[in-house]
């Protein structure tokens, strides 16, 4: 990518990674547009970086996205880079995921065991869907009449 002379839209440009990219690209003589929900942050960043443009946008709102896209197409049709950065990361417990996967597998195996004892076909189970695997070859088959 050419590092200068672009028109770059960065969603989530009001903090951390987005703001860092916006200010770096701004320093490299790109026209930078940032978007985010907090107007106070947008104002503060454009004041600190003269020439940068800011737009309030909540990316969870599909109607607002449509209106925003139309506005951007109209205002800067030459836009050539999108950094689709807006979002959040939540802490996640890998141990919790492992436990729920174990339980789902256990439910699936119990279901198949019951079906095998009944001599019938075991349709897919909820546990199986959660496991993300389908052991068709291990399933008891429907008996011929
Ligand atoms: N930091 C990490 O270690 C890490 C790791 C993996 C992935 N990521 C991803 O990288 C991106 C940036 O991370 P970060 O650490 O810089 O996050 P951050 O500091 O929480 O910043 C998130 C940015 O997204 C904006 N935003 C959040 N929800 C929004 C919404 N509904 N509509 C519009 N803007 C929204 C926020 O601005 P407003 O609050 O003003 O709207 C803010 O500018 C995120 O997508 C994150 O999931 C980060």
From TrEMBL:
InterPro entries xref list: NAD(P)-bd_dom_sf, SDR_fam
Region (Disordered): 102-145
Annotated organism of origin: Rhizobium mongolense
Taxonomic path: Bacteria, Pseudomonadati, Pseudomonadota, Alphaproteobacteria, Hyphomicrobiales
Family named by the database record: Belongs to the short-chain dehydrogenases/reductases (SDR) family.
Keyword presence, Repeat: no
Keyword Mitochondrion recorded: no
Name by which UniProt lists this protein: Short-subunit dehydrogenase involved in D-alanine esterification of teichoic acids
Pfam family membership, one: adh_short
Basic and acidic residues composition bias: residue spans: 131-145
UniProtKB keywords: Oxidoreductase
């Amino acid at each position: 990518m050419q590092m200068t002379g672009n028109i770059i839209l960065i969603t989530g440009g009001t903090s951390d990674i987005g703001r860092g990219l916006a200010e770096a690209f701004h320093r490299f003589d790109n026209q930078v547009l940032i978007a985010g929900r907090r107007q106070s942050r947008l104002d503060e960043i454009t004041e600190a970086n003269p020439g940068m443009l800011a737009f309030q946008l909540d990316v969870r709102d599909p109607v607002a996205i449509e209106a925003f896209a139309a506005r951007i197409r109209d205002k800067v049709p030459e836009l050539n880079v999108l950094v689709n950065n807006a979002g959040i990361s939540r802490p996640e417990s890998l141990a919790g995921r492992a436990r729920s996967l174990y339980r789902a597998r256990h439910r699936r195996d119990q279901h198949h065991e019951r079906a095998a004892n009944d001599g019938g076909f075991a349709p897919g189970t909820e546990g199986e869907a959660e496991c993300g695997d389908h052991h068709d070859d291990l399933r008891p088959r429907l008996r011929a009449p």
